[in-house]
Amino acid sequence: MPMKPNAAIEITAFRWVPEFAQGVVRDLRARWALEEAGLDYCVRLLGRERPPEYLKEQPFDQVPILNDGDVRLFESGAIVQYIGDKSEALLPRGGEAKYRAIGWTYAALNSVEPAVLNVVLIDVFYAEQEWAKLRRAGAVDFAKLKLKRVSDWLGDKTWLEGDRFTIGDLMMVTSLRFLRHTDLVSEFANLDAFVKRGEARPAFQRALEDQLATFREHEPKGEAA
Ligand SMILES: N[C@@H](CCC(=O)N[C@@H](CS)C(=O)NCC(=O)O)C(=O)O
Question: Does 117 lie in the same domain as 53?
């Protein structure tokens, strides 16, 4: 298990989050990539209130960041690409294959995730608001269009670029998992199978279990919950 207290690579994660976010907080991406790469890492846990200095590490006060010696990174996409650069298991070494894998990380973050998060925001944070009830159908249609595009591209391939798993798949699977409270992904059988293939990878399982174990350990008790 690459999670080691004194490892050179450090990431940040939350000590605890409410149940709707457990298993999808974005440090999962860093953990999963590090597990795939077989790189040891340690985790600095943060609470709901971050120390003001954290803004110097993450300008948006979010998780994750990654520190590795002189390299200090924020944004899960950049972090996963950095880890990919350290491991051919995640990112082809050069040429078109490398940049197509990187391109899919942008596609996940920029073409798919905003549409996905629109639905999540409505369902999780604003479900009771009148405007959200009116907006939901449109948001779902837009998300479905994005899912259909990915599904059509994927076809009967195992991963987005064929037989080989890359950081692009890692990012896409984690973006699609934000919809786990809906049936939207399972409406596309190949996309559903794609997400399940990602989740079945031992590296993903270890990453998920480590994130969830932290939340179990720090579950608020009594009135603080
Ligand atoms: N674009 C950023 C988004 C990071 C992000 O949204 N992190 C969430 C957890 S998944 C967070 O820290 N939320 C707390 C907050 O925004 O206050 C990335 O991909 O790293």
Answer: no
Mutate to test the pocket of ligand 1, among 17, 20, 26 (most ligand atoms within 8 A of CB): 26
| Residue 1 pLDDT | 56
Residues 74 and 141 reside in one and the same domain: no
Residue 126 belongs to what domain range? 95-201
Q: Are residues 124 and 192 in the same domain?
A: yes
Distance between CA atoms of 88 and 134, rounded to whole angstroms?
Answer: 46
Centroid of ligand 1 to alpha carbon of 60 (angstroms): 8
Domain of 195, CATH number, reads: 1.20.1050.10
pLDDT 10s digits, 124-157: 999 999 999 999 999 999 999 999 999 999 999 9
Q: Which of 180, 112, 187 is nearest to 150 (CA)?
A: 112
Contacts of residues 92-98 at CB distance under 8 Å and 24 or more positions apart, as own/partner, are 92/164, 92/166, 97/161, 97/164
Q: What is the pLDDT of residue 225?
A: 46
Number of domains in the chain: 2
Ligand 1 binding site (Cβ under 6 Å of any ligand atom): 25-26, 61-63, 75-76
State if pTM tops 0.70.
yes
Query: How is the beta sheet containing 71-74 ordered, strand by strand?
Result: 41-46, 9-14, 65-68, 71-74
> Which parts of the chain have pLDDT scores under 70?
1, 223-225
